[in-house]
Structure prediction request, 306 residues.
Amino acid sequence: MSKWGVAETAGYHAPMSTSRRKALPPSPDPLPIPVPDSHTHLDLTLADADGGGLTTVAEAVDRAAATGIDRMVQIGIDVPSSRWAASVAAEHPAVLATVALHPNEAPRLADLDAALREIESLAASARVRGIGETGLDYYRTGVDGRAAQHESFRAHVGLAKRAGKALVIHDREAHDDVLRVLDAVGAPDTVVMHCFSGDEDFARECVRRGYVLSFAGNVTFANAGALRDAARATPLGQLMVETDAPFLTPVPYRGRPNASYLVPLIVRVLAEAKGVDIAELCASLSATTERVFGPWTSDDRPAGTP
Prediction:
């Protein structure tokens, strides 16, 4: 186990089996100021929703907008999902995309270089604003797969720097090595620690490096005091919120499918943990997410944006 501590996180993404599917939770009260979901998997959400009023991207976008989640970032985890993410972002103004090979995908590939070339090609799309989720995962992949993970991670770091786009990191039980790789090869200007899973000390190390920490539904869990401490240690300007849907559904609906419209439940816990007014937090979350990914209303990133 890392010296930084580990909180519960999602594993390698795969749709729930039919036997595990449950009804979607009800919609929470809307936020006072719109906030983006900085990391979601609409493809998996629609597959896991079991009907429930979410059968298309448009329905998912509309339901999220009704609770104050007016923008979202669709995340790629392999070549097919990255193609899908880029396509959906091109079709839906409320959606931006990232593209990548998930760290657990890298050891599975017969031709990692070919897959990376495809990801680099997709990254050229104007509405693809990030490279991720990439990183290291020592929970799902054993020692034999780590060399491929490191090779893939380093390649994604280089791609993010060449493309001038945010690097979105998946880090599970690999805190020390993630920082070691980034320190060794040089991090891009914008780094997002997706579904932050470390403790306060690890948060401070990431903050010191200028990284943005994105908190998901597990920050609401009763046993997640260390995560809430990490959120308290994170400046507002380096804080984002995400669902990682359909995983990590926030309290009180833990165990049921997650979706972007449930972000208000996470935001309210973060506001309480940090002791800030919820409207102030919403405004900051929106501004930080647009600084990281650029404006949703344009196919171009603003001048000077990392």
